Amino acid sequence: MKDIRSNILILMCLIVMAAGSLAASAQEAQKAAMTNKDVLDLVALGLGDDVVIEKIRTSPQTSFDTDLESLKALKGGHVSDAVIRVMINPKAAAASGPSTPAAAVAPPVNPNVPEEVGVYISMAGKLTEVSPEVVGYKTGGVMKSIATQGLDKGHRNGTVQGPKSALQVASDTEFIIRVPEGTAITEYQLLRLDMKGNRREFRAWTGGVFHSSEGAEKNAEKFESEKIAPRTFRVRLPVLKKGEYGFLPPGNTSGNIASSGKLYTFGIIE
Questions:
Q1: How far is 159 from 198, CA to CA, in rounded Å?
Q2: pLDDT, tens digit, 9 for 90 and up, residues 21-70
Q3: Contact 194/256 with Cβ under 8 angstroms?
């Protein structure tokens, strides 16, 4: 009987000790929890909202009072609305985590718009660059100054070796031209080439102005263009007869008599 009483006393002592330990643990946890006072102290230190919110998010436990009187005290302590919102629902703030900027998405590449300066046509559903041919020039006519416009007028005779272009297309073919920075599509010339034995010849105007007296207009063909992207134009050919033609970029008709340039040539087969 005595042993039973001893065992009961021991068990009761163990229960009391365990209860005391649990109470102490609860007190320690309550002490470690972040409270309104902690937030007020952080704000009083001059810390920004992002720092205070991050502290709330990373705290293992919080114990905020957000009743009316507590909210008045927080506002009196200059706690921002953003911080108070996190205090009201810290679990939601922790779940959302720190915001990260969205990854930059590269704009889709338009297969119908070339990236490099040049002349292109659409073949087999994709853009194909037109390879230019080398042009040899010699000055034709007399270069004169137009006093009223401050421009030089005249023409130059160009020669392309070979009887025809490697590119032969139908008359309804559309071209895509991407021009250099600061260049207008109207500065390009569409020229008809004259057959001269084993070479092709043309006469182009210089200085931006030409008159019937120059003879350069006999090789020039007018064309329509539509802007489809920055510095990029769709060119519709006029009604062209069967023969050899070429697009002459600007800046290819100046220089010395022995100078050379390039011409984006093609032939019309029908």
A1: 10
A2: 555 555 554 557 889 999 899 888 888 889 888 888 888 888 888 888 88
A3: no
Taking a C-beta distance cutoff of 8 angstroms, is the pair 140, 156 a contact? Answer: yes
Rounded-to-integer distance, Cα 111 and Cα 92, Å? 45
Write the pLDDT tens digit of every residue in 145-154.
333 333 344 5
Q: Which of 124, 114, 53, 119 is nearest to 89 (CA)?
A: 53
pTM of the model: 0.53
